[in-house]
Amino acid sequence: MSDHADNADIKIFRTIADGLAAARRAPELQPDCRCHFCDEMVVVNLLFCDVNCRDDFERQNAALRRAGR
Predict the structure, then answer these.
(1) pLDDT over threshold 60, residue 59
(2) Nearest 5 degrees, angle CA 47-CA 39-CA 46?
(3) Which pTM value belongs to this model?
(4) Structural domain boundaries of the chain?
(5) Who contacts 45 (Cβ-Cβ below 8 Å, separation ≥6)?
(6) At the top level of its lineage, which domain of life is listed (predicted)?
(7) How far apart are CA 33 and CA 63, in angstroms?
(8) Are 35 and 24 in contact (CB under 8 A)?
(9) Which residue has the higher pLDDT, 41 or 1?
(10) Which parts of 1-69 fold into alpha helices (H)?
(11) Assign residue 39 a region: left if phi > 0, alpha if psi is -120 to 50, beta otherwise?
(12) What Rg, from alpha-carbon coordinates, does the chain have?
């Protein structure tokens, strides 16, 4: 018979497994010589033109995920 600690462990492991599975399904950005936020030209193999665009992109995507999109 399982106790509360065993049940908590099972729930934690399921949560971690679900999170890892979701992270593996997430599409990766591919460099295409344009900033993924402001569409400016960037050096080859870069995703964003500067740190501000990267942070704004991440902030915008986090808000969309919270909204369920």
Answers:
(1) yes
(2) 15
(3) 0.59
(4) 4-66
(5) 31
(6) Bacteria
(7) 26
(8) no
(9) 41
(10) 4-25, 51-66
(11) left
(12) 19
